[in-house]
Task: structure prediction
Amino acid sequence: MRLACVVLLLWKTPRWLAIPMLLGFLLVDSLYFTANAPKIFQGGAFPVIAGIGLFISKTTGNEGGKSPSSGWTRPHCLCRCSSAAFVSNPPYRVQGTAFFLTARADAAPHALLHNLLHNQVLHEQVVLLTVVSEDSARVTANRRFEVEAYGEGFFRASLYFGFMEEPHVSSDAEKMLYVG
Result:
């Protein structure tokens, strides 16, 4: 079934070419299943039941991620907004700097949205911080961080660590404030 979806919808193969190919696969699979069907009653029921159970759990897991009740696992539409949406008409700006950790460099973190919705304030400086683990063992001090200014007190900062290093996000973010 998934092969048919991939061939017809994703690859956009013409139906006159895809249907005979899919029927060929269905023929081979049905011959294989009928040849092994008598073994189900001779002790081969466990692999069939285990396979059905795995199939159900995988398809339920995929559909569960799409259900409205588990919407918290999906990125919220507000997270795709640019920082301009937050600075265009904020209710009130307070003193200080706020750091918000985010894994995505192209989205506003949920914590920032919740802070804005519940407290109805923004700090003077808002730093969206992403921690990146590099493929190298160590990252030199001059490559430890980079900061990009969005304007109106918004900054995107990235801290880089090697895979052998122990990240000290708070102390490195503090150093970033004084240097940057």
Remarks:
- Helices lie at 2-10, 15-36, 45-66, 84-87, 110-119, 169-179.
- The radius of gyration is 26 Å.
